[in-house]
Design a protein that fits this description.
11 helices, mainly alpha, globular
Length: 295
């Protein structure tokens, strides 16, 4: 019934998608901040348990472990004064504007990144709805967009891409393409394998030549994930776009003294952006390129 309503009233479909994107964008802000903290606590606990077992002693109590910290608990609060964010203070965009970008209690400035991610999520969701129409493809394209946003910003902040997002979405892409949703299953399987192996090969070659690590294993998994969703045919587009954009932005940051030489720039955000472009326009880009070659 909802599908028929959207088919008959596409403006309502686009509005619903945009509003849903704003709401999910607010949740992604939570994921981007809390998931790395959750992972670090888990890794720390596992390391302490391992060392305690090796040394034959009891694992020391950790105050952090005693405190529940996940995507739901504790409630969001101001990091400056501890003021708990109310429902009315957590309405996407509107609350930020109403509060004039400041905490309701202590008036500390709230980062502009929070509403920016909400707007970005809404716009990308709307673009997927426009590109694929009222369809199953649109629903899963939007879901993939949300995952790519979370991965891109986590990588920007922490310089790693969590397996808890990349691996489930890799398998989901393969499952969806058993029904030829975005590509055929053979292309998806080859895309997943080739996506991983291509960047792994570059990594190993660079390490052998320079003794340094040029990228992380999370990048391999992210490209494998995109290959599983979009097929091996989209890998050249994704690699070319991400490399070009990454090189240009890196040069601009260094030239403008916004980034110091020797400090790695995460590659994941460029892969995520290129993958999203390929999701919507990859076929058109490939077709235009082949026509240009044939001309």
């Amino acid at each position: 019934m909802l599908n028929e309503l959207f088919q008959q009233h596409t403006e309502f479909y686009y509005l619903t998608t945009f509003l849903l994107g704003l709401i999910v964008g607010s949740f992604l802000n939570v994921v981007i901040y809390r998931l790395p903290v959750m992972l670090k606590r888990s890794w720390k606990s596992e390391c302490q348990a391992f060392l305690a077992e090796e040394e034959g002693r009891a694992q020391p109590e950790n105050k952090e472990d005693a405190q529940v910290f996940n995507l739901n608990t504790p409630r969001s609060h101001c990091p400056q004064c501890g003021h708990a964010i109310t429902v009315w203070e957590n309405i996407p965009i509107i609350s930020y504007l109403f509060l004039r970008g400041r905490c309701a209690e202590c008036k500390t400035a709230i980062s502009l990144r929070y509403p920016a991610i909400e707007i970005l999520t809404a716009i990308l969701s709307l673009a997927c709805a426009w590109r694929f129409g009222v369809s199953t493809e649109a629903a899963f394209a939007i879901l993939l967009s949300w995952a790519l946003i979370a991965l891109a910003f986590i990588d920007l902040d922490e310089q790693y891409l969590p397996d808890s997002i990349t691996l489930p979405f890799l398998w989901l892409g393969l499952l969806l393409n058993t029904q030829n949703l975005f590509t055929d299953l053979e292309s998806a399987v080859i895309g997943a394998a080739a996506g991983y192996l291509i960047l792994w090969s570059v990594y190993m070659l660079f390490k052998q030549l320079t003794g340094k690590e040029g990228m992380g294993f999370g990048d391999f998994k992210l490209l494998a994930m995109l290959g599983a969703w979009l097929g091996w045919q989209m890998l050249p587009v994704i690699i070319l776009l991400s490399s070009l954009v990454g090189a240009v932005i890196g040069i601009l940051l260094i030239a403008s003294n916004q980034h110091q030489r020797g400090i790695p720039i995460p590659f994941g955000p460029f892969l995520a952006a290129a993958g999203w472009i390929a999701l919507l326009w990859g076929e058109a880009i490939n077709h235009a390129y082949l026509q240009w070659i044939a001309a």
